[in-house]
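We give the entry.
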Amino acid sequence: MKLACQENLAPGRTLKEKLENLAKYGFEGVEFWGRDLRDRLDEVKSEMTRSSLKVSTICAGYRGSPLSPDPEERKVAVEDVKALLEAAAELGAVGLIFVPVFGPPKLPDLSPYKKPEELERELLLTLLYDLARHAEKVGSVLLLEPLNRYETHFLNTLDQAVEYVEEVGSSGVRIMADFFHMNIEEADIAESIRRAGKYIYHVHLADSNRVLPGWGHTDFESGFRALKDVGYDKFMAMECRVPGDPEESLPRSVAYLKQFM
């Protein structure tokens, strides 16, 4: 297991300074937001060649909504996802983090024919078959992220994500496990990790209050033990608030986590 941190959490005026600071704090990787990544891809590639860090992942950043009722909005989202999968491959990242939909359903209720959730499932599978092929072609992975019930009505647990991965049956689709969301949705974080283990290709780290690990009450020890049990050897990236001075709190959180690693 290797620790990474989202770029925006790192102190520094330039990307070079941010990468140097993260390496100094004990991180091995960096996660980039996808929103403006394609516009600065050359800069990122250049700085990464001089850094000891690796790019762990790209976090979303696509326009539109994949499960929108508007076909043009869906088209834009899919095109952006494909482009970001290509960027992930160029940077040597594990893949692109993908959330199908935020908030309530956007598709209509066609009961008694089909409810919105049924339409969403069928549409998502159709998109995943296509995106999985593209991910395989470019050498990247689409990382399905379950969110808690307060952020989405759809895809809340690792078990639900596993169903989609197994249905698609492609190495181009895998799962991201987020400790903050799991703390809300999973009855037992460690057991949910063991069940989904072979499909987990990335992990997000945040404590129960969505602050750096060590500032809340999440049981990272048992969760990390479960990750070890399933042979997890990829990145775990900080995605959370950073309290106080990051020069002090980031290395403190790294030290806290490393006692369980």
